[in-house]
Amino acid sequence: MVSRGGVPALGPVAGAHGGLVELLDRRAAMRAALAELAADGDVSWIAEPLTEGGDPAEAGACLVLGQTRGDRTDLLRGLRVPLGHGLTGKVYGTGRPASVEDYLRAKGITHTFDAHIEAEAVRRLLAVPVSRHGRTHGVIAVGARSDGSFGDRAVTRVRAVADEAALAIAVAERSRLAREVAVHEERSRLAAELHDSVGALLFAIGSGMAGLAEAAGDDPELTDRLDRLRRQADQASTALRDSLRTLRASPAALALSVTLRADCAAFADRTGIPAELVVLDDPPVLTPDRTDVVVGAVRESLLNVEKHAMASAVVVTAGQRPGGGIVVAVTDDGVGLPPGHRPGLGLTSSADAAGRLGGSVRITSEPDGGATWRIELPC
């Protein structure tokens, strides 16, 4: 297909590119899955583990309804679902599809979320795990606001969409890993080039300054100036070594900072509230289970800021814990904690997860307004 003048039309190319980008983007793949189910039910959602990369139960994680479609209220969006609770949590735990024809009277499920379901006027619900090669990535749920039952055709349809979503997630994860490896290799190459060029040049400058200082003899002013220049060259060499160490750092060493920075950016994009990450010193390399607990807890804290703080700015700080380990704090300039504040399910789960690893979670009001949430974990 060509346009005027024999120039190829860009429509098909753009469409193909958009499909490829969607395939390599996890959230886009999930949105596409919900779009396919738009005609199958009045409301649908996808629930995913709050912390990926480890055992969610061990890390104290739960599911989060990250994407919804057809909902009438905002009660479902961002809803945290403890493992095993409701139909969604039950299906994630069993790894098998399930449905109920009258949710509010259904047996065999907890009724933790009856108020949410009633507010959405959902009568029946079908949930299917998003699984591939024995790993469950989440749950797709389709709810209807009319009486009846889900037939075999509906179940087959949702299962097919769940399989497509699982494949898209697997491809996206492989793509992400390939990008991380490519970035690490390029950073290592740049570090080697800087060491051989700039590092060698700074060493030569420092050596030359030392030789000139000896040749200056009894000229104190010239000697003093050369000493200052030599010290500046030494400082530049130290800064270069620090930069080279960062460039050579493995993806595991950078993973936490990269993830927290991305979470701050996502929070700012979602809320319009500026959120900055400040790394006070090199955080220690954490094991995957500890990284999952920290990341999940920070996300829960940011969610609470979004819902309750009425803040205009947020700062996330990360650094080493005295005696070894890590401390991460989320500070906002909002309204602070109300009198008699009691943490909700999400913050309580974060504290329990940290406690199982020998750490702690605290939240306090600041004297000048706002609140600070802090998690500390030993290595």
What does this structure look like?
This protein has 379 residues and is of the alpha+beta class. It contains 9 helices and 11 strands. A 6-stranded antiparallel beta sheet has the order 3-2-1-6-5-4. Strands 7-8-9-11-10 form a 5-stranded mixed beta sheet.
Structural class of the secondary structure composition?
alpha+beta
Mean model confidence by pLDDT = 80
| Major sheet summary line | 6 strands, antiparallel
How far the N terminus sits from the C terminus, by CA atoms, comes to 60 Å
Q: What is the radius of gyration?
A: 27 Å
Q: Percent of residues in beta strands? A: 15-25%
Report the total helices: 9
Order of helices and strands: HHEEEHEHEEHHHEHEEHEE
Strand order of the biggest β-sheet: 3-2-1-6-5-4
pLDDT < 50 runs, ≥5 residues: 1-23, 52-60
The best one-word shape is elongated
Percent in helix: 40-55%
Report the count of strand segments.
11
List the helices and strands and how they pair.
Layout: H1 11-24, H2 26-36, E1 43-49, E2 63-69, E3 80-81, H3 86-94, E4 98-100, H4 114-119, E5 124-132, E6 135-144, H5 152-215, H6 220-248, H7 251-271, E7 275-279, H8 288-309, E8 314-320, E9 326-332, H9 345-356, E10 360-365, E11 371-377
Parallel strand pairs: 7-8
Antiparallel strand pairs: 1-2, 1-6, 2-3, 4-5, 5-6, 8-9, 9-11, 10-11
Helix pairs in contact: 1-2, 2-5, 5-6, 7-8, 8-9
